[in-house]
Amino acid sequence: MKKQLKEHFSITKKEWNGLVVLLLVIALVLAAPYVYQRLHKDTTINEKAFAAAVAQLEKANPQPETTITTGALFKFDPNKASDADWQKLGLTAKQAQIIKNYTAKGGRFRKADDLQKIYGLTKVDYARLAPFIIIDKNKTEPAKVIELNSADSAQLTKIEGIGPAFAKRIIYYRERLGGFVNKEQLKEVFGLDYVKYAEIKEQVRVDARRIRKIDINTITFDQLRLMPYLNYKQVNAIIEYRKEHGNYAGMDDLANIAIIDAQILRKIEPYLVFK
């Protein structure tokens, strides 16, 4: 029995050496964190040195002032003030540029409150500037009313609120349309919304006798395609109906085309002739 137990629990020299190596490896793994902490101590921050470094960095890269130096305020007309004037009044270069863009596009300040419409101008800025705003309302000549169907781009820019960009759009739309039948059609010009129309409507008039008429019985597809009130399918339907049924005698014939409704017919009727 003893012999069997001895044989069961006895180990060879090779196995003993392996066991010793395993124990050493376990001991090293357990001791490694403690050895690392002793050899790599955290560096203590020198607060004075850190503060000095921050101060030096701020000096090298100064931050913009959060408050605006107002300087000496003076009376000014916002319609005539230059970029330099606005900046002397305490506005930033960006704010001055926004105002310049507004006036360059035909914008005009008719009363002091209009300055509040400028994007980027704060209530504080307006409250500070308002007492010094003087708008010259005296005009040596009465404002001229511009006829839309005969005016060139230079004449259109004389309309308060219309700059070169809007003038080009109005002329482009007028050419596609064949002329304006009424001034309300200006609201169909790209970018010219109800607010802008209300601003300029008293400065314009329309002579409908100047519109360019379309002979619906001879016009080609490409020519009729320019009419802004008709889409591609409607233009094609008009041409195909004419080929199939012959010349149009009047608006009643056009009403037979299913994809052209009464609203479209009312819009195009002033421009059509039937020969």
Written description of the protein model:
With 275 residues, the protein is mainly α. Among the domains are: 50 residues; 65 residues, DNA polymerase, domain 1; 60 residues, Tex RuvX-like domain-like (DNA polymerase, domain 1, Orthogonal Bundle). It has 13 helices and four strands. The strands form two sheets. The chain has a two-stranded parallel sheet. 11% of the residues are buried.
**How can the largest sheet be summarized?**
2 strands, parallel
Uncertain stretches: 63-69
Distance between the termini: 133 Å
Derived from helix and strand composition plus strand pairing, the structural class reads mainly alpha
Strand share of the residues? under 5%
Strands, helices and their partners?
Layout: H1 2-9, H2 13-39, H3 47-60, H4 83-88, H5 93-104, H6 123-129, E1 146-147, H7 153-156, H8 164-177, H9 194-200, E2 204-205, E3 214-215, H10 221-224, H11 232-245, H12 251-254, H13 262-268, E4 272-273
Parallel strand pairs: 1-2, 3-4
